[in-house]
Amino acid sequence: MSLLIWRTIIPAILVLGASSARSQMPTPPAATSTVVDTAVVEIILPEGAAKCISITTSGDTLGFGKVGEMELGFAEEVLTLPSQELTTTEPWLLVADAPRGGNVHKISYEIRAYRLQPFRIRIGSVLGPVVHISGSTSDLNETAAIRMPGVWGTRWWLLLMPGIVLAALVVGLYLLWNRRLQLETLQQWEPSPPAWLTAAVELRGLLDTDYPSADSVRGFMDRLANISRGYLAGRYLVAAGEMTGREILAKCLLKGHDSRALRNMIKILEGLDHQRYNPELPNVSWSRQQAIELLDAIDEVRILPKYTFVDPVLLIEAEKAWTWLSGPENHPSGQYQSGGVD
Predict the structure, then answer these.
(1) How confident is the model over 218-224, as a mean pLDDT?
(2) Domains of the chain and any CATH numbers
């Protein structure tokens, strides 16, 4: 009997004590939902615009600073799009200056919102839906790291192009400057022997014969003209073999050579060219006189090879020829003075 009483009374006491303990514990405060600050921005239509009856957006979420679309509905038909801008009561909402388009009852505008919390648009008594702002986080209650959009954000290549042009310009200038500083390899060059050496040997070969005779005076003048042109080409470095007398004189004067000795030599050459193509042959004495005058003209500008390398055989033969040509038996004066020294 006593055992039955203990089994019944003791559990009842424990239950009553637990109930009393729970009743004395403090009650936690009830969870309250966070109320998000939803702003209302008012848009003022231009004066004389039709009455707006509805406001819709392209979605219930708009990216921070991104382009969205707002569509306004009107009770009356809109025949022409408004030309005046829409004004807002808040600076963080930007509305495009001109509408994108529409139909007879609706007009669409592009909008941009620079606000983290949601907002609603109101025109008169018409209130639009709640538009949330999305950032880089999935939770709208968490503030995302936001930066102001830049002008060149999606046009980085516009900055890259001037850099490429500037780099190409720098490389081009460097190559030009480097090329200017490079020294060209000097080629070995030796001055040619004085032209009178060859002319003296050829003149002696021409005059140390029976030339000119009545039958061979034309050939004599041909050889004498070739000797004259060869001397002019070697002495003045012109293509005398392919030029007339006047062309040779003009080219030599252009190079700055003395005209006095040149004019005497050109006069001899032009006389030979005229007479050797003349059907009537000149007399023998005139032809030989041209050779003597050519020798005098060469002697006026003759240069002795002092610092110029000359083939010894040619030098010896030229000196012998000049001595022979200047002798009294071949020249009326019989006296010559040495020319300049090279």
Answers:
(1) 88
(2) 39-134 (2.60.40), 195-332 (no CATH)
